[in-house]
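We store chain and fold; thus.
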Amino acid sequence: MEDLRSLWHRARSPRSGFQARAAQAPSLREACRGLLWLRTPPAFLALLFGYLGFVQVYGRICRMEGPLFDYLWANLPETVNAADVREAFRNLPPLPSWPHVVPWLVVLAPIGVLSIWLHDAVWDHTCLWLLRGLKAPKTFRLTLAADAEALKVGVLGAVLDLLSGIPGAGCLFQVLLLPVGIYFWILRGYALAAWHGCPVWKGVVATLLHAFLTALFAALTLGSFALLVLEAVRP
């Protein structure tokens, strides 16, 4: 396993760091094993903190607390019985206990890491192909290895991102850590360039194009869903 110093060197000097790592020609199995070893613990903690936040929100919903319910009671139509609404919220099912939740989080953490890795690899490879950054048609394994190595370095940002799960201060840390997230996103471009032997700008632009296309497809999907809902409720 690599030490923190080598990961920090690649995060601080991505061009030379990833070129040196690519020259070592680590196998795809080695890259995948290191990725799971490094990224699974913070992924588990992120899921755990997310569930803690959900428990808090769910508890406030069951207790009917917060500004949303203050607005609801103040603007409840006369045709709706407030007692029925309160009874419906009181009858919400309880959340699973911790002994039932934690094993699922242990299973979901590595699955989530592998899902992010494969998602990034497919999109990065496609975008690099659009930019003519691939020197051979059958180089998807190189993209997989490059993204695995970049995500290993990204564990530094993933650990910092755990601060966003702190109750009451998570939103503040999300804003402060946004530049860090962007930096580690772009970092994959240096890894792509090192493994595929293309100019760095093509690797970086490929990751930015990946972000743009993902946001575009998400916006189109949400827009289409919103139009369907409006059509359904239109009198």
User: Anything to note?
Assistant: The longest helix spans residues 28-63. Residues 4-233 form one domain. The chain has a mean pLDDT of 87. Residues 19 and 145 are 13 Å apart (CA to CA).
